[in-house]
């Protein structure tokens, strides 16, 4: 990742009784995602929450997915046409409503 790149973060907030199947995400949804986004996707990371700042507290997010693109336009052009196909797969690994943020890498 370098300065000026666009980072798309998809965060799955922790909530008692909700599910997130990291194995399904890693083994199935990720393939769909990388195929759909193609060469526009430069790199990605998958994070699994371990805990909050207070010892013994749950992580605020059960999972965070970060994806990097050269430009906002390259993200939009690759993601937009594939949005529905990606969202249809969501119930296969989670019942959490994700929160997304698009950012510019500044450092």
In short:
This protein is of the alpha+beta class. The chain is built from 3 helices and 4 strands; from the N terminus they run E-H-E-E-H-H-E.
Structure notes:
The chain has 107 residues and is of the alpha+beta class. The protein has a single domain, classed as 2-Layer Sandwich (Alpha-Beta Plaits), CATH 3.30.70. It has helices at 22-37, 72-79, 83-88, and strands at residues 6-13, 41-48, 61-69, 99-104. It has a 4-stranded antiparallel beta sheet with strand order 2-3-1-4.
Q: Main attributes?
A:
alpha+beta; Alpha-Beta Plaits; 4-stranded antiparallel beta sheet; 3 helices; 28% helix
Tally of domains: 1
What is the straight-line distance between the termini?
Answer: 9 Å
Number of discrete helical segments: 3
The count of strands amounts to 4
CATH A-level architecture? 2-Layer Sandwich
């Amino acid at each position: 990742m370098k300065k000026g790149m666009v980072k798309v973060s998809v965060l799955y907030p922790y909530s008692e009784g909700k599910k997130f199947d990291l194995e399904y995400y890693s083994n199935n949804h990720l393939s769909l995602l990388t195929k759909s986004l193609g060469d526009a996707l430069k790199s990605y990371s998958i994070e699994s929450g371990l805990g909050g700042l207070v010892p013994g507290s749950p992580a605020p997010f059960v999972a965070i997915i970060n994806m990097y693109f050269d430009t906002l336009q390259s993200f939009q052009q690759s993601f937009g046409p594939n949005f529905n196909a990606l969202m249809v797969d969501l119930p296969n690994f989670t019942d959490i409503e994700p929160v997304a943020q698009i950012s510019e890498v500044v450092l």
